[in-house]
Amino acid sequence: MTTRHAVVSGASIAGLSAAFWLRCTGWEVTVLERATEFRDGGQNVDVRGVGREVLAKMGLTEAVRAQNTTETGTVFVDASGEVLVELPSDGPDGATAELEILRGDFARTILRHLPEGVEIGYGDTIAAVQEEAERVTVTTNAGRVLHADLLVVAEGVRSTTRDLLFEGQVDRRALGITMVFGTIPRTTEDDSRWRWYTTVGGRQVHLRPDNHGTTRAILACTEAEDPTRLDQAEALARIRDRFSGVGWEARRILDGFDGSDDVYFDHLTQIRMPTWHRGRVCLAGDAAWCVTPMGGGGASLALVSGYVLAACLSDTGSGSLATGLTAYEAWMRPLVDDVQQLPRWIKPFAFPRTRQGLALRRMADKALLSPVLAPLTARFARIADTDRTLPSITATGTTR
Ligand SMILES: Cc1cc2nc3c(=O)[nH]c(=O)nc-3n(C[C@H](O)[C@H](O)[C@H](O)COP(=O)(O)OP(=O)(O)OC[C@H]3O[C@@H](n4cnc5c(N)ncnc54)[C@H](O)[C@@H]3O)c2cc1C
Protein backbone atom coordinates (compact mmCIF):
# COMPACT_ATOMS: atom_id res chain seq x y z
CA MET A 1 0.00 0.00 0.00
CA THR A 2 1.41 3.46 -0.85
CA THR A 3 1.88 5.90 2.01
CA ARG A 4 -0.87 8.45 2.31
CA HIS A 5 0.07 12.08 2.88
CA ALA A 6 -1.84 14.54 5.06
CA VAL A 7 -1.33 18.29 5.30
CA VAL A 8 -2.52 19.67 8.64
CA SER A 9 -2.95 23.43 8.97
CA GLY A 10 -2.64 24.73 12.55
CA ALA A 11 -0.27 23.41 15.24
CA SER A 12 -2.31 23.76 18.41
CA ILE A 13 -4.23 21.01 20.17
CA ALA A 14 -6.47 19.81 17.32
CA GLY A 15 -3.76 19.99 14.65
CA LEU A 16 -1.08 18.34 16.79
CA SER A 17 -3.47 15.59 17.90
CA ALA A 18 -4.39 14.90 14.26
CA ALA A 19 -0.68 14.90 13.32
CA PHE A 20 0.11 12.53 16.19
CA TRP A 21 -2.56 9.98 15.33
CA LEU A 22 -2.31 10.15 11.55
CA ARG A 23 1.44 9.56 11.82
CA CYS A 24 0.85 6.67 14.25
CA THR A 25 -1.38 5.08 11.62
CA GLY A 26 1.22 5.35 8.91
CA TRP A 27 0.49 8.65 7.17
CA GLU A 28 3.16 11.08 6.08
CA VAL A 29 2.27 14.31 7.83
CA THR A 30 3.18 17.93 7.07
CA VAL A 31 1.93 20.55 9.54
CA LEU A 32 1.75 24.22 8.59
CA GLU A 33 1.56 26.81 11.38
CA ARG A 34 1.04 30.53 10.89
CA ALA A 35 3.15 31.51 13.93
CA THR A 36 6.88 31.67 13.28
CA GLU A 37 7.63 29.34 16.19
CA PHE A 38 5.75 27.15 18.65
CA ARG A 39 2.86 29.23 19.96
CA ASP A 40 2.89 29.31 23.74
CA GLY A 41 0.35 31.12 25.89
CA GLY A 42 -3.21 30.68 26.99
CA GLN A 43 -4.76 29.66 30.22
CA ASN A 44 -6.23 26.63 31.90
CA VAL A 45 -7.69 24.00 29.66
CA ASP A 46 -8.78 20.67 31.00
CA VAL A 47 -8.97 17.12 29.77
CA ARG A 48 -12.40 15.68 30.45
CA GLY A 49 -14.59 12.76 29.51
CA VAL A 50 -13.39 10.66 26.61
CA GLY A 51 -10.44 13.08 26.28
CA ARG A 52 -8.89 11.26 29.25
CA GLU A 53 -9.08 8.00 27.32
CA VAL A 54 -7.39 9.51 24.26
CA LEU A 55 -4.69 11.08 26.43
CA ALA A 56 -4.03 7.69 28.03
CA LYS A 57 -3.79 6.05 24.59
CA MET A 58 -1.17 8.67 23.70
CA GLY A 59 0.76 7.76 26.85
CA LEU A 60 0.57 11.38 28.02
CA THR A 61 -1.58 11.23 31.15
CA GLU A 62 1.36 11.43 33.53
CA ALA A 63 3.08 14.16 31.49
CA VAL A 64 -0.09 16.27 31.73
CA ARG A 65 -0.57 15.49 35.40
CA ALA A 66 3.02 16.54 36.10
CA GLN A 67 2.24 19.98 34.66
CA ASN A 68 -0.94 20.45 36.65
CA THR A 69 -1.71 24.13 37.21
CA THR A 70 -1.61 23.49 41.00
CA GLU A 71 -5.17 24.78 41.36
CA THR A 72 -6.84 23.05 44.33
CA GLY A 73 -10.45 24.16 43.92
CA THR A 74 -12.88 26.86 42.83
CA VAL A 75 -14.64 29.48 44.96
CA PHE A 76 -17.05 32.34 44.27
CA VAL A 77 -16.00 35.48 46.15
CA ASP A 78 -17.55 38.87 46.90
CA ALA A 79 -16.06 42.33 46.38
CA SER A 80 -13.87 41.98 49.46
CA GLY A 81 -12.60 38.54 48.45
CA GLU A 82 -14.70 36.73 51.09
CA VAL A 83 -15.68 33.24 49.93
CA LEU A 84 -19.42 32.98 49.22
CA VAL A 85 -19.56 29.44 47.89
CA GLU A 86 -17.07 26.64 47.29
CA LEU A 87 -17.64 24.51 44.17
CA PRO A 88 -17.09 20.76 44.41
CA SER A 89 -13.70 19.82 43.00
CA ASP A 90 -13.63 16.16 43.90
CA GLY A 91 -13.54 13.58 41.12
CA PRO A 92 -12.12 13.98 37.62
CA ASP A 93 -14.83 16.41 36.41
CA GLY A 94 -15.03 18.94 39.23
CA ALA A 95 -15.05 22.68 38.48
CA THR A 96 -11.28 22.39 38.81
CA ALA A 97 -10.72 19.24 36.81
CA GLU A 98 -8.30 16.49 37.76
CA LEU A 99 -6.32 17.05 34.55
CA GLU A 100 -5.98 20.82 34.40
CA ILE A 101 -3.09 22.26 32.37
CA LEU A 102 -2.18 25.51 30.66
CA ARG A 103 -2.99 25.51 26.93
CA GLY A 104 0.62 26.21 25.97
CA ASP A 105 1.97 23.42 28.20
CA PHE A 106 -0.59 21.02 26.73
CA ALA A 107 0.20 21.82 23.11
CA ARG A 108 3.95 21.62 23.81
CA THR A 109 3.52 18.21 25.47
CA ILE A 110 1.83 16.79 22.37
CA LEU A 111 4.44 18.46 20.15
CA ARG A 112 7.31 16.89 22.12
CA HIS A 113 5.76 13.44 21.90
CA LEU A 114 4.93 13.47 18.20
CA PRO A 115 6.03 10.30 16.43
CA GLU A 116 9.16 10.58 14.28
CA GLY A 117 8.67 11.96 10.83
CA VAL A 118 6.06 14.69 11.36
CA GLU A 119 7.28 17.80 9.56
CA ILE A 120 6.24 21.18 10.94
CA GLY A 121 6.57 24.31 8.80
CA TYR A 122 6.33 27.38 11.01
CA GLY A 123 5.55 30.81 9.60
CA ASP A 124 3.68 29.39 6.64
CA THR A 125 0.02 29.40 5.71
CA ILE A 126 -2.16 28.11 2.92
CA ALA A 127 -2.54 30.44 -0.05
CA ALA A 128 -4.57 28.19 -2.35
CA VAL A 129 -6.12 24.75 -2.41
CA GLN A 130 -6.86 22.80 -5.54
CA GLU A 131 -9.16 19.85 -5.05
CA GLU A 132 -9.20 16.91 -7.44
CA ALA A 133 -10.68 13.45 -7.16
CA GLU A 134 -7.33 11.75 -6.58
CA ARG A 135 -5.50 14.39 -4.56
CA VAL A 136 -5.58 17.81 -3.00
CA THR A 137 -2.84 20.31 -3.84
CA VAL A 138 -1.93 22.94 -1.29
CA THR A 139 0.11 25.98 -2.28
CA THR A 140 1.55 27.90 0.63
CA ASN A 141 2.43 31.55 1.00
CA ALA A 142 6.10 30.55 1.28
CA GLY A 143 5.78 29.04 -2.19
CA ARG A 144 5.61 25.33 -1.32
CA VAL A 145 3.39 23.07 -3.37
CA LEU A 146 2.21 20.03 -1.43
CA HIS A 147 0.30 17.17 -3.02
CA ALA A 148 -1.71 15.29 -0.44
CA ASP A 149 -4.46 12.73 0.05
CA LEU A 150 -6.03 14.76 2.85
CA LEU A 151 -6.05 18.34 4.14
CA VAL A 152 -6.96 18.80 7.81
CA VAL A 153 -7.85 22.39 8.70
CA ALA A 154 -7.27 22.97 12.43
CA GLU A 155 -6.73 26.72 12.47
CA GLY A 156 -8.99 27.64 15.37
CA VAL A 157 -12.17 29.69 15.49
CA ARG A 158 -11.04 32.35 12.99
CA SER A 159 -9.73 29.89 10.40
CA THR A 160 -9.16 31.54 7.04
CA THR A 161 -8.74 28.29 5.09
CA ARG A 162 -12.12 27.08 6.39
CA ASP A 163 -13.68 30.36 5.28
CA LEU A 164 -12.08 29.98 1.84
CA LEU A 165 -13.14 26.38 1.29
CA PHE A 166 -16.52 26.32 3.04
CA GLU A 167 -17.74 29.76 2.03
CA GLY A 168 -21.41 30.29 2.84
CA GLN A 169 -21.51 27.33 5.23
CA VAL A 170 -19.97 28.91 8.32
CA ASP A 171 -22.60 29.94 10.88
CA ARG A 172 -20.86 32.24 13.39
CA ARG A 173 -22.91 32.76 16.53
CA ALA A 174 -21.45 35.55 18.63
CA LEU A 175 -22.55 35.08 22.23
CA GLY A 176 -22.07 38.79 23.05
CA ILE A 177 -19.38 38.01 25.62
CA THR A 178 -15.78 39.22 25.65
CA MET A 179 -13.09 37.44 27.64
CA VAL A 180 -9.59 38.80 28.18
CA PHE A 181 -7.02 36.30 29.42
CA GLY A 182 -3.57 37.29 30.68
CA THR A 183 -0.67 36.48 32.97
CA ILE A 184 0.17 38.80 35.87
CA PRO A 185 2.73 38.71 38.70
CA ARG A 186 1.75 36.54 41.64
CA THR A 187 1.38 38.15 45.07
CA THR A 188 1.53 36.54 48.50
CA GLU A 189 -2.26 37.07 48.84
CA ASP A 190 -2.99 34.89 45.79
CA ASP A 191 -4.11 31.47 46.94
CA SER A 192 -4.24 28.06 45.34
CA ARG A 193 -7.90 28.26 44.30
CA TRP A 194 -9.69 29.66 41.28
CA ARG A 195 -11.31 32.80 42.72
CA TRP A 196 -14.28 33.99 40.72
CA TYR A 197 -16.00 37.33 41.35
CA THR A 198 -19.28 38.18 39.59
CA THR A 199 -20.68 41.68 39.84
CA VAL A 200 -23.38 43.91 38.34
CA GLY A 201 -23.22 45.24 34.80
CA GLY A 202 -22.49 41.80 33.34
CA ARG A 203 -18.90 41.59 34.55
CA GLN A 204 -16.72 38.85 36.02
CA VAL A 205 -13.17 38.89 37.41
CA HIS A 206 -11.15 35.69 37.83
CA LEU A 207 -7.77 34.83 39.36
CA ARG A 208 -6.23 31.38 39.01
CA PRO A 209 -2.89 30.02 40.18
CA ASP A 210 -0.50 28.48 37.67
CA ASN A 211 2.53 26.19 37.86
CA HIS A 212 4.92 28.86 36.54
CA GLY A 213 5.03 31.13 39.60
CA THR A 214 2.58 33.64 38.07
CA THR A 215 -1.16 34.19 38.28
CA ARG A 216 -3.63 33.81 35.41
CA ALA A 217 -6.32 36.46 35.28
CA ILE A 218 -9.53 36.74 33.27
CA LEU A 219 -11.86 39.68 32.79
CA ALA A 220 -15.16 38.66 31.21
CA CYS A 221 -18.13 40.85 30.31
CA THR A 222 -21.16 41.10 28.11
CA GLU A 223 -20.15 43.13 25.08
CA ALA A 224 -21.61 43.47 21.60
CA GLU A 225 -18.46 44.68 19.85
CA ASP A 226 -15.73 42.22 18.89
CA PRO A 227 -12.43 43.41 20.47
CA THR A 228 -10.36 41.06 18.32
CA ARG A 229 -10.95 43.52 15.46
CA LEU A 230 -9.18 46.30 17.40
CA ASP A 231 -5.49 46.72 18.08
CA GLN A 232 -4.53 45.51 21.53
CA ALA A 233 -3.99 48.96 23.11
CA GLU A 234 -7.42 50.13 21.95
CA ALA A 235 -9.08 46.89 23.09
CA LEU A 236 -7.41 47.16 26.51
CA ALA A 237 -8.48 50.82 26.88
CA ARG A 238 -12.10 49.77 26.28
CA ILE A 239 -11.83 46.97 28.81
CA ARG A 240 -10.40 49.43 31.34
CA ASP A 241 -13.52 51.62 30.86
CA ARG A 242 -15.84 48.65 31.07
CA PHE A 243 -14.27 47.48 34.35
CA SER A 244 -13.90 50.88 35.99
CA GLY A 245 -15.18 50.83 39.57
CA VAL A 246 -15.67 47.06 39.63
CA GLY A 247 -13.54 46.61 42.73
CA TRP A 248 -11.88 43.49 44.10
CA GLU A 249 -8.73 42.77 42.01
CA ALA A 250 -9.87 44.37 38.75
CA ARG A 251 -7.49 47.33 38.87
CA ARG A 252 -4.47 45.11 39.63
CA ILE A 253 -5.39 42.89 36.68
CA LEU A 254 -5.85 45.82 34.29
CA ASP A 255 -2.46 47.25 35.33
CA GLY A 256 -0.91 43.80 34.93
CA PHE A 257 -2.38 43.35 31.44
CA ASP A 258 -0.91 46.70 30.37
CA GLY A 259 2.60 45.39 30.93
CA SER A 260 2.03 41.81 29.78
CA ASP A 261 3.01 40.24 26.46
CA ASP A 262 0.57 37.39 27.06
CA VAL A 263 -2.90 38.89 26.72
CA TYR A 264 -5.44 36.98 24.65
CA PHE A 265 -8.80 38.48 23.65
CA ASP A 266 -11.77 36.35 22.72
CA HIS A 267 -15.21 37.47 21.60
CA LEU A 268 -16.97 34.20 22.25
CA THR A 269 -18.29 32.86 18.96
CA GLN A 270 -19.69 29.45 18.34
CA ILE A 271 -18.96 27.95 14.95
CA ARG A 272 -21.71 25.75 13.57
CA MET A 273 -21.48 24.04 10.22
CA PRO A 274 -23.74 21.66 8.31
CA THR A 275 -20.72 19.49 7.49
CA TRP A 276 -17.09 19.25 8.54
CA HIS A 277 -15.73 17.63 5.43
CA ARG A 278 -15.85 17.81 1.69
CA GLY A 279 -13.86 15.75 -0.79
CA ARG A 280 -10.34 15.49 0.60
CA VAL A 281 -10.66 18.31 3.12
CA CYS A 282 -11.83 18.07 6.71
CA LEU A 283 -12.06 20.44 9.65
CA ALA A 284 -11.05 19.71 13.25
CA GLY A 285 -11.21 21.49 16.60
CA ASP A 286 -12.41 25.08 16.96
CA ALA A 287 -12.24 25.64 13.19
CA ALA A 288 -15.08 23.15 12.83
CA TRP A 289 -17.17 23.62 15.96
CA CYS A 290 -15.82 26.21 18.39
CA VAL A 291 -17.85 25.63 21.57
CA THR A 292 -16.37 28.63 23.47
CA PRO A 293 -15.52 28.62 27.17
CA MET A 294 -19.28 29.05 27.89
CA GLY A 295 -19.84 25.54 26.53
CA GLY A 296 -16.47 24.32 27.80
CA GLY A 297 -14.34 21.39 26.76
CA GLY A 298 -12.87 22.86 23.55
CA ALA A 299 -9.45 21.38 24.30
CA SER A 300 -10.87 17.93 25.09
CA LEU A 301 -12.90 17.90 21.87
CA ALA A 302 -9.85 19.07 19.88
CA LEU A 303 -7.74 16.29 21.38
CA VAL A 304 -10.38 13.63 20.75
CA SER A 305 -10.95 14.76 17.16
CA GLY A 306 -7.39 13.88 16.11
CA TYR A 307 -7.78 10.35 17.41
CA VAL A 308 -11.24 9.78 15.96
CA LEU A 309 -10.18 11.13 12.57
CA ALA A 310 -7.17 8.83 12.34
CA ALA A 311 -9.14 5.85 13.67
CA CYS A 312 -11.95 6.30 11.14
CA LEU A 313 -9.41 6.65 8.33
CA SER A 314 -7.29 3.72 9.49
CA ASP A 315 -10.38 1.56 9.17
CA THR A 316 -10.86 2.51 5.56
CA GLY A 317 -7.64 1.01 4.21
CA SER A 318 -9.64 -0.46 1.38
CA GLY A 319 -12.70 1.79 1.74
CA SER A 320 -13.07 5.32 0.51
CA LEU A 321 -11.76 8.42 2.24
CA ALA A 322 -15.32 9.75 2.15
CA THR A 323 -16.53 6.80 4.24
CA GLY A 324 -13.88 7.50 6.86
CA LEU A 325 -14.59 11.22 7.00
CA THR A 326 -18.32 10.59 7.30
CA ALA A 327 -17.66 8.21 10.19
CA TYR A 328 -15.40 10.82 11.84
CA GLU A 329 -18.10 13.43 11.67
CA ALA A 330 -20.81 11.05 12.87
CA TRP A 331 -18.72 10.13 15.92
CA MET A 332 -17.79 13.70 16.88
CA ARG A 333 -21.09 15.48 16.28
CA PRO A 334 -23.06 14.31 19.35
CA LEU A 335 -20.19 15.39 21.64
CA VAL A 336 -20.17 18.85 20.05
CA ASP A 337 -23.97 19.25 19.99
CA ASP A 338 -24.07 18.44 23.67
CA VAL A 339 -21.97 21.52 24.60
CA GLN A 340 -23.18 23.89 21.90
CA GLN A 341 -26.79 23.82 23.04
CA LEU A 342 -26.57 26.45 25.76
CA PRO A 343 -29.73 27.03 27.79
CA ARG A 344 -31.21 30.51 27.21
CA TRP A 345 -30.88 31.44 30.88
CA ILE A 346 -27.16 30.74 31.08
CA LYS A 347 -25.90 34.15 29.92
CA PRO A 348 -28.12 36.31 32.20
CA PHE A 349 -27.37 33.87 35.01
CA ALA A 350 -23.61 34.05 34.50
CA PHE A 351 -23.60 37.80 33.84
CA PRO A 352 -26.29 39.49 35.97
CA ARG A 353 -26.80 43.18 35.15
CA THR A 354 -28.59 44.56 38.20
CA ARG A 355 -28.26 44.37 41.98
CA GLN A 356 -31.42 42.29 42.15
CA GLY A 357 -30.07 39.97 39.46
CA LEU A 358 -26.83 39.56 41.39
CA ALA A 359 -28.68 38.86 44.65
CA LEU A 360 -30.80 36.22 42.91
CA ARG A 361 -27.72 34.69 41.36
CA ARG A 362 -26.03 34.38 44.76
CA MET A 363 -29.08 32.69 46.22
CA ALA A 364 -29.23 30.33 43.24
CA ASP A 365 -25.52 29.46 43.65
CA LYS A 366 -26.15 28.33 47.21
CA ALA A 367 -29.21 26.29 46.16
CA LEU A 368 -27.54 24.68 43.16
CA LEU A 369 -24.60 23.58 45.27
CA SER A 370 -26.77 22.20 48.06
CA PRO A 371 -26.56 18.41 48.57
CA VAL A 372 -30.00 18.00 46.93
CA LEU A 373 -29.25 19.78 43.66
CA ALA A 374 -25.47 19.24 43.44
CA PRO A 375 -25.76 16.01 41.38
CA LEU A 376 -27.85 17.91 38.80
CA THR A 377 -25.38 20.80 38.73
CA ALA A 378 -22.47 18.40 38.28
CA ARG A 379 -24.01 17.47 34.91
CA PHE A 380 -22.67 20.79 33.51
CA ALA A 381 -19.09 19.74 34.16
CA ARG A 382 -19.50 16.41 32.34
CA ILE A 383 -18.14 17.37 28.96
CA ALA A 384 -16.98 15.16 26.11
CA ASP A 385 -18.77 12.46 28.04
CA THR A 386 -20.15 9.46 26.17
CA ASP A 387 -21.11 5.84 26.70
CA ARG A 388 -19.94 5.06 23.17
CA THR A 389 -16.67 3.21 22.71
CA LEU A 390 -13.95 5.07 20.84
CA PRO A 391 -13.40 3.68 17.35
CA SER A 392 -10.44 1.34 17.35
CA ILE A 393 -7.24 2.33 15.67
CA THR A 394 -4.92 0.26 13.55
CA ALA A 395 -1.48 1.62 14.41
CA THR A 396 1.51 0.87 12.22
CA GLY A 397 5.03 0.46 13.53
CA THR A 398 5.75 4.21 13.40
CA THR A 399 7.93 5.00 16.39
CA ARG A 400 7.69 7.84 18.85
C1 LIG B 1 -2.25 31.42 21.77
C2 LIG B 1 -3.58 30.84 22.18
C3 LIG B 1 -4.07 31.12 23.46
C4 LIG B 1 -5.30 30.59 23.85
N1 LIG B 1 -5.74 30.88 25.10
C5 LIG B 1 -6.91 30.38 25.52
C6 LIG B 1 -7.36 30.64 26.85
O1 LIG B 1 -6.69 31.32 27.63
N2 LIG B 1 -8.57 30.14 27.22
C7 LIG B 1 -9.33 29.38 26.38
O2 LIG B 1 -10.41 28.93 26.76
N3 LIG B 1 -8.91 29.09 25.13
C8 LIG B 1 -7.73 29.58 24.68
N4 LIG B 1 -7.31 29.32 23.41
C9 LIG B 1 -8.19 28.50 22.54
C10 LIG B 1 -8.04 27.01 22.82
O3 LIG B 1 -6.73 26.59 22.61
C11 LIG B 1 -8.99 26.27 21.88
O4 LIG B 1 -10.32 26.68 22.17
C12 LIG B 1 -9.02 24.76 21.99
O5 LIG B 1 -7.93 24.24 22.64
C13 LIG B 1 -9.16 24.12 20.60
O6 LIG B 1 -7.92 24.13 19.96
P1 LIG B 1 -7.69 24.21 18.39
O7 LIG B 1 -6.41 23.51 18.14
O8 LIG B 1 -8.90 23.78 17.65
O9 LIG B 1 -7.56 25.78 18.08
P2 LIG B 1 -6.50 26.85 18.59
O10 LIG B 1 -5.94 26.48 19.90
O11 LIG B 1 -7.14 28.18 18.46
O12 LIG B 1 -5.29 26.73 17.54
C14 LIG B 1 -5.32 27.12 16.20
C15 LIG B 1 -3.88 27.11 15.67
O13 LIG B 1 -3.89 27.39 14.28
C16 LIG B 1 -2.97 28.44 13.99
N5 LIG B 1 -3.49 29.14 12.83
C17 LIG B 1 -4.49 30.05 12.77
N6 LIG B 1 -4.71 30.42 11.51
C18 LIG B 1 -3.84 29.74 10.75
C19 LIG B 1 -3.60 29.67 9.35
N7 LIG B 1 -4.31 30.39 8.47
N8 LIG B 1 -2.63 28.85 8.90
C20 LIG B 1 -1.89 28.08 9.77
N9 LIG B 1 -2.09 28.11 11.11
C21 LIG B 1 -3.05 28.92 11.58
C22 LIG B 1 -2.92 29.25 15.27
O14 LIG B 1 -1.71 30.01 15.35
C23 LIG B 1 -2.99 28.15 16.32
O15 LIG B 1 -1.72 27.59 16.58
C24 LIG B 1 -6.07 29.80 22.95
C25 LIG B 1 -5.58 29.51 21.67
C26 LIG B 1 -4.34 30.03 21.28
C27 LIG B 1 -3.82 29.72 19.89
TrEMBL record:
Residues 7-337 form the FAD-binding domain. SUPFAM superfamilies: FAD/NAD(P)-binding domain (SSF51905). InterPro entries: FAD-bd, FAD/NAD-bd_sf, FAD_aromatic-hydroxylase. GO terms for molecular function: monooxygenase activity. Keywords: Monooxygenase, Oxidoreductase. This is FAD-binding monooxygenase.
